[in-house]
Please model this.
Amino acid sequence: MTEYKVITQSVANVTITSSANTFGTERRFQKDVLISQLKGKLELLTGSVTGNMKLELFDKENKRVCILDNDDAMLGSYPVEDGMRIHVTDPTIKIGEFEDVSRVEKFEISAEEYSKRTDSVRAFKQKNKLGEFREVDPEEQRRLEEEQKMKQEAEKQKLNSIKIGDRCETRIPGQPTKRGSVKYIGTTEFKAGNWIGVQYDEPLGKNDGSVQGKRYFDCPPKYGGFVKPDNIEVGDFPEEDFGLGDDEEM
Model:
């Protein structure tokens, strides 16, 4: 038997692909592993059996370097380097065969049968009073409901105090204060709840008054934005010039 020597680093990080799938799996192999041993390791990754495997080595540019065709040779006797790809071809397996989930038999159980099981996630949550099974103190529940009503009433009053055309400042936590004019008040399709549409004085926004193809008001690109009523104040806020319009307006 011909003796082969590993003349490079002792380990190679390579990506494994195969006839069975179109995605890759990164693996680390010792370079002194024999090709026959490598095929045995690849059985679990590819679903192919050793006798059907043909191994091809590809470089980082996806060009084929060589065929790993000597079962008695060590991996390191071939020009394998980190970042290369080893592709396993098996003529008995169709491309993407193991990716077709429609062929997987699905386990189905009725809601009634599931509720009777003692080893389910639902049973665990019920036993430990988690999620929908959490016990809520009636007094705490009333307090939370009252807080929610007060919050909704405060938002309603805030909305009634804002008019289209009002000068405003947006004050969002973690963001700089921005000035502009109110251009829209009401609900939106992109997110639940009430929103205030603002045309900023400078191109500090995210849109032109439209979101996801729905237009709520008109303004130049990057001058528009939407904020919650809690994050806006209307009043005497003169326009400030930061010198951004000439450079960033589209």
User: Anything to note?
Assistant: The chain is about 20% helix and 25% strand.
